[in-house]
Amino acid sequence: MLRLALVPVFAVLIITSHDVAALLVLAFSGFTDWLDGAVARRLDQVSKLGQVLDPAADRLFILVTLVALAWRDVVPLWLLVVILSRDVLMACLLPTLTRLGYGPLPVNFLGKAATFALLYAFPLLLLAESSGTLGAVAHAAGWAFAWWGVGLYWASGALYVVQARELVAEHRAAAGAPS
């Protein structure tokens, strides 16, 4: 996946304050993500590998972007902690699901909407560093997307926890163990 190869390129650009190039890489990455998904669905070539790698690439891009933006003081550290805490919670579910014979839970609409909002928020927050009207508008829009993204991110996380609990309960019921 091209997006995975672009992650370190983006990281170096953002940390070294090559903001325009970083924005272009981020935009290109978002476009290729959309295009890849659209082509796969249109040609009915959705693969198990793609269903795992695509969300993993999204998480990696979000992580790297957040760390780099926090490093540059574009976003506060608490935003990094709030978003990463949800990912840590999701990672804690995987060993139990794997032990029961399940893979990662399928991506839900809330998760897709959260990723969309966050991947719009980050470039806007970076653009908000510029002065004038553009910076002011980007600041307002960036934080609006960020707040919605965080809310949806945690709502999707709660949905995944509920789904995981249901799978564990079904597994226990099938095995004859008490819930």
In short:
This protein has helices at residues 2-15, 19-42, 48-71, 77-99, 109-127, 132-175. The protein has 179 residues and is mostly helical.
Structure overview:
By secondary structure, the protein is an all-alpha fold. The chain has a single domain, classed as Four Helix Bundle (Hemerythrin (Met), subunit A), CATH 1.20.120. The protein is built from six helices and no strands. The radius of gyration is 18 Å and the shape is globular.
Total strands: the figure is 0
- CATH top level? Mainly Alpha
* Domain tally: 1
Mean pLDDT: 89
What's the helix count?
6
Low-confidence sequence ranges: none
Which architecture name does CATH use?
Answer: Up-down Bundle
Task: Label the overall shape.
Answer: globular
Note the run of SSEs as H and E. HHHHHH
Which class do the helix and strand fractions yield? mainly alpha
- Major beta-sheet overview: none
Strand % is under 5%
Terminal CA distance reads: 41 Å
What is the helix content? over 70%
| CATH T-level topology | Four Helix Bundle (Hemerythrin (Met), subunit A)
Rg estimate, integer Å: 18 Å
